[in-house]
C-alpha cells in the first residue's frame, strides 16, 4: 500500500513538472510577442482563454506531423492547412464561427520548441504581418509536441472569441487552477 502511495505521489510530481515546463514555452512566446509589439509601439495582446483552448485543439491536430520547410510558418501562401474538425474544435472551446471569423490561427513547427527559433518563427516569418497589425488585441498560445500555435483575436464582434453563452473555457485540458486542485486533493488522499 505504501509503495502504491509513493508511486501516486511520484506520478503527481512528475506530471506537475511536465505541466510547468509546457506552460513556460507558451508564456515565453506570449511575452516575446508582446516585447516585439512594444518595440513597434503597438499595444500588448491580452491572454484569451478560449483562443488558448482553440490553439490547443489545432496543435493537437498537428501533433506527430514532422517539421518541414513547407509546414508551419514556412507554409506557402495558398496552401494553408485545412481544419476538417474545426466545428468540433469550436464547440469544445465554447466558441462559434460568428465570433471567430476575423481571428488568426498561426501554427509553427520547431523541433523541441527551441525558444529562440519559436519566437523568430512568428516575428520573422509571414506571420509578422499579423503581429504588426493593430487589428488584434487578444492572444492564446498552446503547444503539443514540436507544434506551437498562436491564435489572435480582435476586439470586434467578428473576432472577439467572446464568451457568448459559455462559461466553461477549460476545453479538453485541465487548466493550472484545476491542476492545483487536483494536486491538493491527491496530497490529502496521501496523508
Ligand atoms: C515608438 O515611439 C517612440 C516614442 O514616441 C519613438 O521614438 C519611436 O521611434 C517609435 N518606434 C516606432 C517603431 O514607431
Ligand atoms: C524544401 O526542401 C527541399 C529538399 O530539402 C527542397 O528541394 C525545396 O526546394 C525546399 N523548398 C523551399 C520552399 O525552401
Ligand atoms: C522556424 O523554425 C524552423 C525549425 O523548424 C527553422 O528551421 C526556421 O529557420 C525557423 N524560421 C524562422 C523564420 O525563424
Ligand atoms: C512587420 O514589421 C517589421 C518591423 O517593422 C518588418 O520588418 C516586417 O517586414 C513587417 N512584416 C510585414 C509582413 O510587413
Ligand atoms: C485589418 O483589418 C482590415 C479591416 O477589416 C483588413 O482590411 C486588413 O486586412 C486587416 N489586417 C490584417 C493584418 O489582418
Ligand atoms: C454564436 O454565439 C453568439 C453569442 O452567443 C450568437 O449571438 C450567435 O448567433 C452564434 N452564432 C452561431 C452561428 O451560432
UniProtKB/TrEMBL annotation:
Cited PANTHER family: OS07G0645000 PROTEIN
Q: Kindly indicate where the leader peptide sits in this chain.
A: 1-22
Q: Print the keywords alphabetically.
A: Signal
The scientific name of the source species is Erythranthe guttata (Yellow monkey flower)
Entry keyword annotation includes Signal = yes
Top-level taxon of origin: Eukaryota
Q: Where is the Uncharacterized GPI-anchored protein At5g19230-like domain?
A: 26-152
Name this polypeptide is given: Uncharacterized GPI-anchored protein At5g19230-like domain-containing protein
